[in-house]
Amino acid sequence: MVRLSIILYLISTAATSRVGVKSGQNASTGRAGQFSPWQLSYKGLSCLAMDSVPFAGLSAHWPKCWAKAVEDAKDIGTTDNCKLCDVDFDGSKPEVMNGVLSNAGCSAKVTCAAARLGNSACYEGHGALSVSISAAQRKESPDLLCLPCPEGCNECYSIQSNIMSTTGTKDRQFKCITSPLGRAETGGEYCEPPKGFNCQKDKCVKRTCKGGLLKWGCNKKDYKATCDFPKSFDNIPVTFPGPEDYSLTVRSGENVQGMPPVLPYLSGEKQIEGETVGV
């Protein structure tokens, strides 16, 4: 079900005077001639195949904003293994109307929908989507929610690395719990970390099962190894006929007796002469 809510705020001259805004200026920004501000929230867009339907004008009239959202969603799809993204846009007049301040017309925030939808928002095929993540990590690091537990690990626990990567962020790591190989009786027992992963093989050691998250159901016969999550995942873009849902909130323009002037630009029904169509 798609919901469209248009909220018109009627701002009279008297009302703007009470909040210290000059007549003819927008009450929220104080700038004369401000288009009606709007907020557009998409739920369940394909991270690797973003589509602005049914708002064709979003990519045409706010091309830089749209392109940045597409770039962020692609990063989430490849780096975080996320298939479905939620995107919140916050804008006003089309970018070309802002002249040299063309970046001021819109902003976008992209997040993985896994916090809302669970594993159905994640790509499959890279391992079990069963990495144990603490409540604090779920809140502070939503990028961990779709990371897989690879074949060869009985269990995986997300841990916070203290090692800074070349990008200035901490590497994402997990603790792999694996069964022993070989026979202890003959002195040939050993630990085999998951193949294809960068793991600290020399630190693949027996579990101690002392307190914390690893205590419940812990088996001292098992081994544990610290490994890095992949830097990226080779995922194939999936396309959908439209978003799972969307909501649009629009404020009135200077003419509070008319429809918000931004609507035909968002829908794509109105074009701007000399404007270059975006992504």
Features:
279 residues, disordered N terminus, four-stranded antiparallel beta sheet, alpha+beta, 15% helix
Task: Please write out the topology.
Blueprint: H1 13-18, E1 38-46, H2 57-61, H3 63-79, E2 84-91, E3 106-112, H4 114-117, H5 135-140, E4 155-164, E5 170-178, E6 205-206, E7 223-228, E8 245-250, H6 263-267
Antiparallel strand pairs: 1-2, 1-8, 2-3, 4-5, 5-7, 6-7
What does this entry look like structurally?
The protein is of the alpha+beta class. It has two domains: 13-117 and 236-267, no CATH class; 127-228, no CATH class. It has six helices and eight strands; from the N terminus they run αβααββααβββββα. The strands form two sheets. It has a four-stranded antiparallel sheet, covered by helices on one side. A four-stranded antiparallel sheet has the order 4-5-7-6, with no helix packed on it. The protein is elongated.
Short description:
With 279 residues, this protein is an alpha+beta fold. It contains six helices and eight strands, in the order H-E-H-H-E-E-H-H-E-E-E-E-E-H.
